[in-house]
Amino acid sequence: MKTLNRILAAFLLTLPSLALAHTGEGAHGGFAAGVGHPLGGLDHLLAMVAVGCWAAHLGGKALWQLPVAFVGAMLLGGALGMLGVAVPMMEAMILASSVVIGLALAISGRLNSLIAASLCALFAIFHGAAHGLEMPNSGSAFGYALGFALATAVLHLTGLASGKLSQELAGRSLERWLGGAIAVAGLGLAFS
């Protein structure tokens, strides 16, 4: 089973690079741009990996509830952005997401998984709106949304794997340091 998990993880980590090999117009251009958007900004990277780490920290149903809630709400926010709907305080909430989730990890926050998933979904709407607003004029909206949803899922899986690995290596202490680092990095982005 461990070998299968390693193979699956290695495959999932290669998907963004494979997707970026497809450039140009049409569905491929939309998909590649969608994959690239969450990977291209530290604000998105921090928050999406933090969601996975927090899910690992909470365990149980949170392992799937937080990532599913985030991706689902992000797609809703993406649709709003693609329609040109201005979402107030978008950038501030994107930055707040990594700070809040990082702090939840740093203080070993143990929220009910549904409340944690709801918080993740709230932040995801803002992330999705940013993705949607920056959709290129050429390419498929469906492909673009599929790309940013897939890239986000891979980042969540990366956070889950990091969270589980940190628990195995050093218990909760490494996880808390990781959460603190994410929160500090988020604050740094807010003041830069």
Relevant terms:
mainly alpha, 192 residues, 8 helices
Task: Describe what you observe in this structure.
The protein is globular and about 45 Å long. The protein has helices at residues 2-20, 26-39, 42-58, 62-82, 90-106, 113-133, 141-170, 172-191. By secondary structure, it is mainly alpha-helical. Residues 3-28 have low confidence and may be disordered. The longest helix has 30 residues, at 141-170. The chain has one domain (2-191).
In short:
The protein has 192 residues and is an all-alpha fold. It contains eight helices and no strands.
Low-pLDDT runs: 3-28
Taking the sheet with the most strands, its summary is:
none
Strand residue content: under 5%
Query: How many domains would you count in the coordinates?
Result: 1
End-to-end distance, in Å? 44 Å
Number of helices: 8
Shape, per Cα inertia axes? globular
How many whole angstroms does the radius of gyration measure?
16 Å
Structural class call reads mainly alpha
- Range of helix content: over 70%
List the helices and strands and how they pair.
Layout: H1 2-20, H2 26-39, H3 42-58, H4 62-82, H5 90-106, H6 113-133, H7 141-170, H8 172-191
Helix pairs in contact: 1-7, 2-7, 3-4, 3-5, 3-7, 3-8, 4-6, 4-7, 5-6, 5-8, 7-8
